[in-house]
Amino acid sequence: MIPALVVFAYLSVVVYIGIFAFRKGRDSGEDYFLAGRQLGPFVFLLSLFGTNMTAFAILGSSGLSYRAGIGVYGLMASSSGFVIPLTIFFIGTRLWRLGKKYGHMTQVQYLRDRWECSFIGTLIFALTAAMLVPYIIIGVMGGGTTLEAISQYQDADGAVSSWVSYEAGGAIVAVVVMSYVFFGGMRGTAWVNTFQTLLFLCFGTVAFVLISRSLGGFDQAMERLASNPKTATLLSRERLAKEEFFSYMFIPLSSIMFPHIAIMCMTAEKVNHFKKTVVLYPLCIAAIWIPSVYLGVVAADQFPGLGKGESDDVILRMLNAHTDLWVSGILGAGIMACVMASDSQILALCTMFTEDIFAFYGGKERFGEKAQVWTGRAFVVLVTLTAYLIALQLKDKAGIFELAIRFAFSGFAALAPVMIAAMFWRRSTKWGALAAVLWVAGTLVATYVIHGQSEALAPKPGQPPVPIYPEWGRFLLRTPVNVTVFGFLPVMPMCLGSAVLVFVVSLLTPPPSAATLEKYFPSKTKA
Amino acid sequence: MKMLGFVLFVAAMVALHHDFWFWTDKRLVLGFLPIGLAYHLGYSVLASLAMLGLVRLAWPKDLDEDRSGGGAA
Predict the structure, then answer these.
(1) Which long-range contacts (CB under 8 A, 24 or more apart) does A375-379 make?
(2) Of residues A89, A226, A275, nearest to B26 (C-beta)
(3) For A312-347, how does the pLDDT look when each residue is reduced to its tens digit (9 = 90+)?
(4) In a domain, A524, yes or no
(5) Which of A210, A226, A506, A508 is deepest in the core (most CB within 10 A)?
(6) Which one of A86, A235, A294 has the shortest CB-CB distance to B26?
């Protein structure tokens, strides 16, 4: 009961932050959607980092480490710690500058203007919105599941029940997120993300130390794992395929293409705020992921033999077993914070809708800026309500959305060459971008279909991959959880194909007008 | 030249990320930290230092130039 009470206290604070942000705000689109482009360095760093942290960073990473070992850190975290700040450095700063100069609030506005084409913007809007929706649904589902789990109690007969049902938990999370996004807009969301990240960094460290003390240090647990042939491989990367490890480095390219990250980049008050962010970002990732991965591996010693579904909550098991109820409750609130990371996605979707559709097709001119902000707020309610209803209907189908999110990462990563071409290659054209976007959409659908068709062929963990179409040799292989191309994850050919298409098709088609090139590449045009 | 330097820098960081030499190594650093994890922790620190280097040496000048001009449209 105590963890649930702590989580409810946390949710109340979060709603208060949203209402406080509402009081500080003004009724302009730029203020609601971008916090008036006035975020300071501290809030900018922590909210950008917090926005990128999903439930997977905590729950999923420790669960996966329980099964696959310490390699999960190199697979997903250390590569992100290099690639994400690099993209923020090169692309985020430029998005910030162009947004400040020309009033852009979304990537789509920039891409439409850069390529003098409204259709490409609408297409990218549709694709990104489709890839974003599963996150929002999973956020509500995760909220319901987590609240149900942390409010569990054992009655007199020994039966386990929950104070909060999945349905009620999902509704509470949906209403809380909706409230602070509705009232606080970007300012509220950024403040909540900052609060959540601080909470997690502080209490995560405390929990790590307490678990270590409770175990009498980690040395003995590690020695036991090393001496058992069944678990020794968790201390190396033998359970990971080298091709998969290599291709995972393409995934963090997705970060800057996520609308909520790109939009967040436009909220900084000064460009100098990016400097601290890119330098500290890899260390923030390490601070969150190292304990999560490490505790996941230690859990293999503490709770051996858990299946895939059971191992997803090993971090909660460790907390319950080795810390007192208050620490466990506060950490539960922190985990809740990560589960609720869908706030930024909801706001991003609403910003895109109001800017790229409502305003672009004349709504702002006809009804005014105030109406635009209220349209955005109405959209927040609509999106959250829809996500909640879907989460209720498909309670046991979370796997579908988790899979969709995995594909979405590949899709956003494969869109990165489009943004890179727009920013750095004056000869790139709308036709090149269009070809790449269609390639991304086509390959996403194809891999989704092949993944579904090859489900029955999937080998068990530890077994070698199976050719999906034996007549094609090793071209398409099925591993326990993925479809691979010659052993590499689909994200790699998707990114490379997208880059080649932007390049080749751009060279074959006429460049944008001189006026546009002058606008976006002024110094070179003048020279 | 600047471009070549950048490509070499990224290639070096990507190469360092793929530490195949520790792939099957199960040694424990300080008795509790698997060496593969310790290496990638070090890689994260290196990435932070690399970003510091980028900020100091390759910060785009046009960003600073635009700081004073052009408010939101």
Answers:
(1) A376/A29, A376/A32, A376/A33, A376/A185, A376/A350, A376/A351, A377/A32, A377/A182, A377/A350, A379/A349, A379/A350, A379/A353, A379/A354
(2) A226
(3) 778 878 887 887 777 777 767 766 766 666 788 889
(4) no
(5) A506
(6) A235
